[in-house]
Design brief:
The complex is a heterodimer of chains A (about 120) and B (about 110). Chain A is mainly β. In chain A, about 0% of the residues lie in helices and about 50% in strands. Chain A contains no helices and eleven strands. In chain A, the strands form two sheets. In chain A, strands 2, 4, 5, 6, 9, 10 and 11 form a seven-stranded mixed beta sheet that branches. Chain A has a four-stranded antiparallel beta sheet with strand order 1-3-8-7, with no helix packed on it. The radius of gyration of chain A is 13 Å and the shape is globular. The termini of chain A are far apart. Chain B contains no helices and eleven strands. In chain B, strands 2, 4, 5, 9, 10 and 11 form a six-stranded mixed beta sheet that branches. In chain B, strands 1-3-8-7-6 form a five-stranded antiparallel beta sheet, with no helix packed on it. In chain B, a hairpin with a 5-residue loop joins strand 4 and strand 5. Classes of the chains: A mainly beta (about 120), B mainly beta (about 110). At the A-B interface, strand 5, strand 9 and strand 10 of A face strand 4, strand 5 and strand 9 of B.
């Protein structure tokens, strides 16, 4: 149980385009979802936290207008990287939490983004 | 702000050896501490979670300890196997917001040589 999926698993795009990444909780209701970014040889850094039906809370230094997060249902959150640039190339990982399952975050497999 | 450090950054051991991975954190007011495994290009698999009131957790060949007063946690792997090769991450959660915010270390890349 407690499986989280991400789609796509990898994406290559041209600079200036927008890319949408989906995060789904497959067998539980994710009251809260988290988006992380991991640059090569660096640790995961939390980008934003989103609760279903409300606006996301962004961490300091993360541009909310560039990284659009939507958490419209209890099983789906999307991250849209708008006007992507090469420096946005990274590994994006989402996690989900269901209060009924405790405080544990369940992580998706990640999405590797390469912006040319 | 919580800072999490993991030493060593990389470790190679022969198969069968016991090993210890270290994690230190600057703010002892944590909610819990987790150890994860990350395979290349993959997401995270939770290995062990230690609540702030606990001192250790065990799962199979893995044992994690927590010493809040010194800001340290260790992950002990017994009888290592080639399949244990991966990057191991520890993450401390912020006390004020429960488990909402996980602060990750940079990881220890473990290679178990057959």
């Amino acid at each position: 149980g407690a499986v989280v999926s991400q789609h796509p698993s990898w994406v290559i795009c041209k600079s200036g385009t927008s890319v949408k990444i989906e995060c789904r909780s497959l067998d539980f209701q994710a009251t809260t979802m988290f988006w992380y970014r991991q640059f090569p040889k660096q640790s995961l850094m939390l980008m934003a936290t989103s609760n279903e039906g409300s606006k996301a809370t962004y961490e300091q230094g993360v541009e909310k207008d560039k990284f659009l997060i939507n958490h419209a249902s209890l099983t789906l959150s999307t991250l849209t990287v708008t006007s992507a640039h090469p420096e946005d190339s990274s590994f994006y990982i989402c996690s989900a939490r269901d209060r009924g399952l405790g405080e544990t975050q369940y992580f998706g497999p990640g999405t590797r983004l390469l912006v040319l | 702000k919580q800072e999490v450090t993991q030493i060593p950054a990389a470790l190679s051991v022969p198969e069968g050896e016991n090993l210890v991975l270290n994690c230190s954190f600057t703010d002892s007011a944590i909610y819990n501490l987790q150890w994860f495994r990350q395979d290349p290009g993959k997401g995270l698999t939770s290995l062990l979670l230690i609540q702030s009131s606990q001192r250790e957790q065990t799962s199979g060949r893995l044992n994690a300890s927590l010493d809040k007063s010194s800001g340290r946690s260790t992950l002990y792997i017994a009888a290592s196997q080639p399949g244990d090769s991966a990057t191991y991450l520890c993450a401390a959660s912020a006390h004020q917001t429960g488990a909402n915010n996980l602060f990750f270390g940079t990881g220890t890349r473990l290679t178990v040589i057959p």
